[in-house]
Amino acid sequence: MTVTLITGANKGIGFETAKQLLELGHIVYVSARDVERGEKAAAALGTRFVQLDVTDDVSVSDALATIDSAEGRLDVLVNNAGISGAGAIDGPTALRVFDTNAVGIVRVTEAALPLLRKSSNPTVVTLSSSLGSFWAVNNPDRPEFNMPLALYSASKSAATMLTVQYAKSQPGIKFNALEPGTTATDMTAAFGVGRSVVESAKTVVRLATLGTEGPTGTFTDELGELSW
To answer: Which of 47, 141, 143, 201 is most open to solvent, judged by the fewest CB atoms within 10 Å of its CB?
Structure first.
């Protein structure tokens, strides 16, 4: 059975992705910063839970050690945890956004690499955003053109670049970044936009279930590769 870890999976796209992968037969570990919320989500899904705060090295290390002890490997990592950083732009907010949305990817991926190397089909999916694309945010025909989320956008540019660099440095592991589509979640509530998490999670599941010959180093949405 495929062993999968999803960060920030107690709600939103992460929660729905866990549900869909569980239905496909994956052993799913949902993770969250808050133990109570994470355990509640895991109980509702019927999955396993590990406490994991992507901004805390010890938390990340302990979570991967737990999975190692129980499973001996990790087949799929979904880097889903993220924050919007909406509001005033200042140094502390920028540090918090980048620590979660970009540095957090590095923490979790580096801790997961030894377990991913034990898999016969290791896959990493990172939820990025077309808000991190110069092409999208400068195109008046795109919804990103009118969304003023500077810190979020910049951190997602970093997330996409990390995906490319990991794909190049770890050729035995598939790394792909994803624009899941504008989704109605807590993060987008202020904008009053977005489709069902069910639809967006399908795009994550597609990349999380690639075969051994699947692509790596890509940035895509449900329609195909996206311009940067």
So the answer is: 141
DSSP tag of 101: I
Residue 152 annotated as catalytic: yes
Beta-carbon-side half-sphere exposure of residue 90 (alpha carbons within 13 Å): 3
15, 29, 49, 152: which one is catalytic?
Answer: 152
pTM for the structure as a whole = 0.93
Alpha-carbon gap, residue 12 to 178, rounded angstroms = 16
Distance from the first to the final alpha carbon of the chain: 35
Question: 3-state SS of the chain: helix, strand, coil percent to 5?
Answer: 50, 15, 35
Give, in words, the CATH class of 3-225.
Answer: alpha beta
Residues whose CB is less than 8 angstroms from the CB of residue 154 and which lie 6 or more positions away in sequence, other chains included: 98, 132
Residues 136-172 have pLDDT tens digits of 999 999 888 988 899 999 999 999 999 999 999 999 9
